[in-house]
Predict the structure.
Amino acid sequence: MHDFSLATLGGLAIGAAAVLMMALLGRVTGISGIFWTGLSQAMNRTAGILSWQMLFVLGMVSGAFLAHRAFGLPLPPVSEHNLLVAIVAGWVVGFGTNLGSGCTSGHGVCGISRFSPRSIFATLTFMFAGFATVFALRHLLPVVT
Amino acid sequence: MIKLTALACGILFGLGLSVSGMTNTHKVLGFLDVFGDWDASLAFVMGSAVLVTAIGYRYVLRQPAPRLSTEFHLPTNAVIDRPLLYGAILFGLGWGMYGYCPGPAVASLAYLRLDSFVFVAAMIFGMLSSTWLKQHFLT
C-alpha cells in the first residue's frame, strides 16, 4: 500500500510540474525533447549551457537528490543488469524517443492529457513493446535457453 | 525568470520521479512484467500525473497566453506516421531491457552510479544517431 501512495504522490508532483510548465512557459514537459534540445543547442553553440532546457534537467537531478537526502527516502537498489545491457538499452531508448518525438512524459503524460491521437498511439505502442520485451526476456528466454 | 521557473519545475519533476519509484529499475521492470509477478503500483504514477495534467491543461490552455511567454508552444504534427511507430517500438524495447526511460535515467545521475552515466551517455549517442538518420534519409 505504501508503494501505491508514494506512486500517487510522485505522479501528482509530476503532473503539477507539467501544468506549471504550460501555465508559465507555455511548454510541453517532454523530457527526451527538453534534454536533447538543451544538449544539442549547447553543442551547436546556438544557446548557452544554461538554457531553460538545461536548467530543467539540472533541476530534475537536484530533485532526485533532494528526495533521498531531505526526505530520507531509501536509494533504489542497483540494477541487476551489466553495463553492456545499459549501453544497448540506453542507445535504443535515445534513438527511439528521438525518432518517435517523445517518451513517457511527452507522449504519456502531456500528450494524453491533451487527447492527442499521436501521443495516445505512441503510448500504447511503447507500453506494449515494454510488456513484450519483459515477457520475452523474463519468461520466454529462460524457457528457450 | 523563465530559467528560474524551469529550474523549479525540474526540481518538482525530479522529486516526483524518485518519490514515485520511477527511478527504481527493479520496480519499473516489475511493472512491465504483466505476465509475471506484476507490480501495478507504477500505473498510479501515470494515472495521477495524467489526471492532474488533463485538468490543469484544460484550464491553462483556455488562457490567451502563458504567463512568461507570448504563446503556447504545442506540437503541430498530427499524423501517425512510421517514425512515430518505429520510434515508440524501439523506446519500449529499450525501456523493457533496463527499466529506465529518459526522465528517470537523467534524474538517477543524482545517485552517482556508473550505470546511470553509461545509460545516459549511450542515450545521447542514440539521439545523435536518430538525428543523423532523420537529416540524411527522412527529409
Summary: Chain A touches chain B through 108 residues (CB under 8 Å). Chain A is about 75% helix and 0% strand.
